[in-house]
């Protein structure tokens, strides 16, 4: 398998005035193409900081982070934005759909920034909405969809650019248990299709859907299989 994400001795600190607040401590993590990895940890464990670094929304204070062979530490803000657009598909807890756009228009949006033609945008957006089971909901606005359907639209929007990694932040956090399980089944199907997924969660049951679990606590990583997670 191709190595697509490699973190080596990653440290991250923030500063409150002159006081240093260490968040991540010597983090080492490698993810290969086609893996489904969950990063499991309670509030305050450092998992949001991990997500921001993985998603190129922030950079480490020290250490090496390679994403698809790109050394993230060497990139400026414009270059980081290009990497995010090309390599990462984001799925958020609260969907973040534009309320006045239909499901189809929401999914098309990232392709506008790519400069694709109207016909190509429509073709790709329709295909991915069909893949996530929303062929009959393309013309609906977000408020005409259930929570689970809105998250499927968000997943389709993340996938339509064919990113290297699908990065999901608490993807079932705003859903009831049954709907959350259905969304996780979709993630498993996408992974079976070869999609690389990295999921951030505090929920042990949700983490177990991944094939590999990395536990984060007080900024330190320990690794377990999905079956071993307690």
From TrEMBL:
GO cellular component: membrane protein complex; plasma membrane
Residue ranges occupied by any ABC transporter domain in the UniProt entry: 5-229
InterPro entries: AAA+_ATPase, ABC_transporter-like_ATP-bd, ABC_transporter-like_CS, ABC_transpr_LolD-like, MacB-like_ATP-bd, P-loop_NTPase
Alphabetized UniProt keyword annotations: ATP-binding, Nucleotide-binding, Transport
GO molecular function, one term: transmembrane transporter activity
PANTHER family listed in its UniProt record: ABC TRANSPORTER DOMAIN-CONTAINING PROTEIN (PTHR24220:SF692), IMPORT ATP-BINDING PROTEIN (PTHR24220)
Descriptive protein name: Macrolide ABC transporter ATP-binding protein
Organism field: Paenibacillus durus
Lineage, opening ranks: Bacteria, Bacillati, Bacillota, Bacilli, Bacillales
